[in-house]
Amino acid sequence: MINYLQITPDLLTYVRECSAPESDALRGLRERTAALPEAMMQVPPEQGRLLTLLTLLTGARRVLEIGVFTGYSTLCLATGVPADGTVLGIERNQQWLDIARPFWDRAGVGDRIETVTGEAEQVLDAMTDPFDLIFIDADKERYDHYYEAALRLARPGALVIVDNTLHFGRVVDPEAPTDDPEYERMRPQYRALDRLNRKIAVDPRVDCGMVPAFDGLTLCRVRESGDQGGVIDGAWPEPKRQPSTVPTAGL
Ligand SMILES: C[S@@+](CC[C@H](N)C(=O)[O-])C[C@H]1O[C@@H](n2cnc3c(N)ncnc32)[C@H](O)[C@@H]1O
Asked: What digits encode the pLDDT tens for the residues 90-107?
């Protein structure tokens, strides 16, 4: 049996001591964000470091982020793309972007970051250009829509990262009875994430892995048509062919 570590405060401090140090801009942005009541929306520094690393490892040049907030994760992604790369961030609240921009500029990567202020669903539906890496971190009830949009916009082999997929661990039993009004308010999120997690697990369009750290992070490599990816002994379903745009009736 695998025993995962309990991340105690001491252990988290240790992890932070043994992580590559944050840049001045990242630290400044984190401290500025910490003064906000919504600060817990920001990814923690060690997850930010992982986002930079994944961007570097995949060689991503075109990155899409759905849900920017004050731009900590955006800055981590932008640090990983090459100088001529871009990160496009979608965020409905301009006030968060106004906080983010000076820190992005201070980090020297402001020219790599473009933002669109608006409702993610509509912005995504109007987009067509492909991306190498897509990070989903907005409103959880619409995650399935964002996931489908991400697969449509991902080039073959791209990485789609879905945040909060274990959402406080509540995905295990999203129908759990409770008298807690806060739990009841959040229940649609737990349900949506549980449905999406189960869908991704058997989605023949991706190779996926769930990281039981942070608030749960799912990594999906988008398969090409006919690509068997990491299928072992047929344990996963055969990839579906991409639907043809040419009518095949009668052929
Ligand atoms: C969890 S926070 C993102 C945190 C950010 N990735 C970071 O690590 O700092 C989610 C963000 O998505 C934005 N958001 C939520 N629903 C949205 C929607 N439908 N369209 C656009 N932005 C949305 C919120 O305003 C919020 O800033």
From this structure: 999 999 999 999 999 999
Give the span between the Cα atoms of 77 and 116, in whole angstroms: 16
Segment 119-145 shows an average pLDDT of 98
Residue 73 is inside which H or E element, if any? helix 72-80
pLDDT greater than 80 at residue 232: no
Establish whether residue 43 lines the binding site of ligand 1, counting it when its CB lies within 6 angstroms of any ligand atom. yes
Answer CATH for 9-222 from 3.50.30.10, 3.40.50.150, 2.70.70.10, 2.60.40.1120: 3.40.50.150
Handedness of CA 78, 81, 85, 86 (dihedral sign): negative
The response to whether residue 69 sits with its C-beta less than 6 Å from ligand 1 reads yes
For residue 246, the model assigns a pLDDT of: 34
Strand order in 206-211's β-sheet? 113-117, 86-91, 62-66, 131-136, 154-163, 217-222, 206-211
Angle between helices 24-34 and 45-58 (to 10 degrees): 140
96 Cα to the center of ligand 1, angstroms: 9
User: How far is residue 60 from each of residues 52, 82, 159, measured CA to CA in Å?
Assistant: 10, 8, 9
